[in-house]
Design goal:
elongated; 0% strand; 65 residues; 3 helices; mainly alpha
């Protein structure tokens, strides 16, 4: 997950799933970029990416002991 595009796409998928499952709005995946700002995808993607990295780090520490 080192490529910046991966974080953008991860945020885009997370926002699409949020709209589809939580808000119950029927939005096509290709149309979501017209409804929300690109900054939202970056922020959500980076937040999830950092959470995955931190959880992986602590998991490795626990497995080591």
């Amino acid at each position: 997950m080192s490529s910046p595009g991966n974080f953008y796409n991860l945020g885009k998928i997370a926002v699409w799933l949020w709209c589809r499952l939580i808000k119950k709005k029927k939005i096509k995946y290709s149309d979501i970029i017209f409804l929300y700002s690109g900054w939202l995808f970056w922020i959500v993607g980076l937040g999830i990416g950092v959470l995955i990295i931190v959880c992986g780090y602590f998991l490795l520490i626990r497995l080591e002991n």
